[in-house]
Design a protein that fits this description.
- By secondary structure, the chain is mainly alpha-helical.
- It has 2 domains: 62 residues, 434 Repressor (Amino-terminal Domain) (Orthogonal Bundle); 129 residues, no CATH class.
- 65% of the residues lie in helices and 0% in strands.
- It contains 11 helices and no strands.
- The N terminus is likely disordered.
Length: 211
């Protein structure tokens, strides 16, 4: 187990030591310039999301662990969709990774589109075919993976009303899509909206179960 740290440098040093890797060897494996790796490890430069992705792949460590250690934002659970969107807007404003504003109306429109699609044969097949592939690509990014798998099982076995399955299917299709309100290639903020949608749907379903 890795010791908890707020800095990426000590974590990279620990991983390299365990795998008997020098900075030069890590540079060769990742394709990242040796000088950049040295600056990241010594705290003289912030690792970019792309750097972290390459480190995670070659050092066999969850990408999410490196994100948090490098100081990138991790979305928190919110039962209120408006609070979650406000949090994302704040993160985007401080990170300068996305030009346009993230708004609730866009999210609702996208989610409604995917909910309608999930009720079609085409949408259901997309979930069946693409879900496992997307999960494998994402790995352990975000605290919502276990929720996704639970939702997938419910959708596949049709455990729920038509409205519940539409909500679940819509969230799954939103997750599968690479280009949604926040494109997934914008690591790590690209998965914030997915996390919000998933938690919102899960919370809504839990509330309905107690009514």
């Amino acid at each position: 187990m890795l010791e908890k740290s707020k800095e990426i440098g000590p974590i990279l040093r620990e991983l390299m030591q365990k795998q008997s890797l020098s900075m030069r060897k890590l540079s060769q494996l990742t394709g990242i310039d040796l000088a950049i790796i040295s600056k990241v490890i010594n705290g003289k430069r912030k690792a970019t999301p792309e750097h972290l992705q390459r480190f995670a792949e070659k050092l066999n460590v969850p990408l999410s662990a490196l994100y948090e250690a490098a100081g990138y934002p991790v979305v928190q659970k919110h039962s209120d969709l408006n609070d979650s969107v406000a949090q994302i807007q704040s993160i985007l404003k401080s990170s300068n990774l996305v030009d346009r504003e993230f708004c609730l109306e866009d999210l609702n429109q996208e989610l409604e589109k995917y909910q309608n699609l999930s009720l079609t044969k085409e949408g259901a097949e997309a979930v069946h075919i693409q879900f496992d592939e997307k999960i494998e690509k994402v790995g352990s990014i975000g605290p919502f993976i276990h929720n996704l798998k639970d939702m997938y099982e419910r959708f596949i076995w049709k455990k729920g009303t038509k409205m519940e399955l539409a909500m679940i299917g819509g969230a799954l299709l939103y997750f599968i899509s690479a280009v949604d309100c926040l494109p997934d290639y914008l690591f790590p903020v690209g998965y914030l909206d997915d996390a919000v949608v998933i938690h919102w749907v899960m919370n809504t379903l839990q509330l309905k179960n107690y009514q």
